[in-house]
Amino acid sequence: MATARRTGAHAGGETARFGQRRDDVIHAASTLINVVGVKGTTFAELARAIGLNATSITYYFDRKDKLVSAVYEATLDWLEEAARDAAEMPDPAARVRAFLHAHIALRLRVRAGERGLVTALSEIRTLDEDVQAPLLAQYARIVEIVRGFFGAERSGWRKSLDTARAHILLEAMFWWPVWSPNFSTRDFDRIEGRIFDIFAHGLSARAGEWEPVALDRNAWRTSSGDDADTLDAFMRAATVLINQRGYRGASVNRIAAELNLTKGSFYHHHEAKDDLVGECFTRSYDRLSAIQLAASRAAGSGWQRIAGALAEAIDLQFHDPMPLLRTTALQALPGEARAGVVLRSNRLANRFAGMLADGIADGSVRAVDPLVASQIFMPAINAAYEARGWAARHGDPAFATRLYAWTLCAGFMSDPPGID
C-alpha cells in the first residue's frame, strides 16, 4: 500500500508539473501572440521566453495550431467566466459594471507584471475551420450571456437592440488594452466609473435625441464598378477579405482570385502584402477623418454633428462595398507599422474628443470624459462591419444605424421609443 501511495503521489506530482509547465507555455505564447501575432510566434521564440529548447515545446504541443487553439481557449474561458459572474448580478447596471470591473482589474494585473492572462482574439478566423469552429461557438455563447445582461426573454427589436449592446460592450473591452497604456493605473478606478457612466446613460443631453446631420457622402463612399486591375480594386478586395478572414486568411492568392486576376497583377501594384495592408489602413483612416471633418463643419448642435459622424461611419460599415479596415490586421503588422496605425487611431479619437467637448460646451452632450468616450467610439465604428448581417435583417438602413448607435446615444437604461 505504501508503495502504491508513493507511486500515486509520484504520478500525481508528474501530472501537476506537466500541467504547470503546459500552462507556462500557454501563458508565454499568449504574451508573444499579443506582441508579434500568430505568424510571428514560433516555437524557438517561445522556448527562449520560458527557458526551454524548441524541441521541449513539442512535448506539450506537437503542432503550432494546437498551441494557438489552447491559447485562445484560455482567453475565451476567462471571458466566459467573467460574463457568467457578471450575469449573476441583480440588474443590468450591476451586470455591466461587474463585467467592466473584471476587465479593468485584469489590466491592473497585467501592468503589475502578470503574463499571458488574455490574448487578442483577432486572428481566430485565420485558423483552419475545424480548429476555429469550437472557438467561434464558445464566443457565440459569450455573446449570448452578455446579451442577457439587459433582460431575459426579450424579443423582436428589443432582442436585436440587446445584441447591438452586447457587441459594442465586448468590442469596447477588447479595445481597452490598446488605449489603457495612456493612463496611470492610479486613474483606473476613475476611468472605470466614467466608462460605466457612458454605457449606462449615453451621451445625448436631451433624453436620447438622435437627429444626425446629413452629410455629402461623395468624399468617402466607394463605387463597386471599378476595373479589377486597379489599386482601388485591390484595396477593396483586401479590406473585405481581411475583415472576414484576418490578416493571414487574406492571402495574396485569395485577394487576386477575388478580382479574377493573377498574383503577378498583385505584385504589379505592391511589393508585399504588408504594403497593401498599410495602404488599406491609411485609406480607412483618411475616410473616417473626412467624415469627422465634414460633420464638424455642418450646421447643428455639437451632438447632432457627432451623431452625423457616427451615423455615416456606421452606415458605411454596414453597406459600402469597401468598408473601413478592422483592427484585426493590427497584430500581424511589423512593430513600427503597428505603432503608426495606433497613433493615427488615437489622433482620430482625439478629434472625436474635441467634438464632444464642443457638445458639452453648448449643452447638447452630457458632461462626460471626452477622452474616454472617444475611445468607445473607435471600436464601435470599427466593429460595425461585423454587424452587417444584423443590419441587413432590419431593412431600413437608418433604423439599423439608430438601433446600433443607441447605446452611444442613450445608454442601456432605456429603449428607443416606438420599437416593439
Strand percentage: under 5%
Radius of gyration: 23 Å
The CATH first-level class of the largest domain comes to Mainly Alpha
Which architecture of the largest domain per CATH? Orthogonal Bundle
Structural class of the secondary elements? mainly alpha
What is the CATH third-level topology name of the largest domain?
Tetracycline Repressor, domain 2
* End-to-end CA span: 70 Å
Spans with pLDDT under 50 lasting ≥5 residues?
A: 1-10
Number of domains: 2
Biggest β-sheet, characterized?
none
CATH superfamily of the largest domain: Tetracycline Repressor, domain 2
- What sort of overall outline do the alpha carbons produce when their principal axes are compared? globular
Estimated helix fraction: 55-70%
Give the strand tally.
Answer: 0
Helix tally equals: 17
Average pLDDT taken over every residue: 86
> What series of H and E elements makes up the topology?
HHHHHHHHHHHHHHHHH
Overview of the molecule:
The radius of gyration is 23 Å and the shape is globular. It has helices at residues 2-40, 43-50, 54-60, 64-87, 92-111, 129-147, 156-179, 188-201, 231-249, 252-258, 263-269, 273-296, 302-319, 335-362, 370-383, 388-392, 397-410. Helix content is 69%, strand content 0%. The chain is built from 17 helices and no strands. By secondary structure, the chain is an all-alpha fold. The protein folds into two domains: 18-153, Tetracycline Repressor, domain 2 (Orthogonal Bundle); 206-410, Tetracycline Repressor, domain 2 (Orthogonal Bundle), CATH 1.10.357.10.
